[in-house]
Target: Magnesium transporter MgtE intracellular domain-containing protein
Amino acid sequence: MAQSRALLLIALVLAVPAGARLPDLANSLLPLARDWVAPAQANVSVVEDGEESSALLEAIRVRQTELSGWQEALSEREQAVESAQAQLEARLSELAAAEERLAQTLARVDVGAEDDIARLTAVFENMKADTSAALFEQMEPRFAAGFLGRMQPEAAADILSALPTESAYAISVVLAGRNAGAGQ
Model:
């Protein structure tokens, strides 16, 4: 019961604009306010002298001022959130564009690197086996195996046969083991 009275009081306070009717409203709501604040004094009559109604009116004005301040602060926070969200969306858009440019650059680099390796592989295939073997002997076995794995089998065989046995064996081990773990 007290809660419904309090809700009624709040609804009336918020619904009635500040103006000439506020003192009358305060006077008429005083019994409800007393019942709500002090339930033990439920049968208190309205004070005729207006001091208590003036105090209630002042309390309502203070509360209305506080509510206005809170509403203004809430509005400012809402604007700040909207601004931050707009900035975040702009940054995400910039990031997506930068990521796309990076992907395009990496694709061009990959294509360029692949073209360079294919060209160098063709050069090694067209060299005499003894000359290529001298170069492959200087390479790390994994690096040499990468080229030999791309070559035509005949050209790769000629180069491997021209290499010293230890180098040919090391490169063969790398070639044989390249795909050993692929099925796992």
Summary: Residues 39-47 have pLDDT under 50 and may be disordered. Residues 2-78 form one domain.
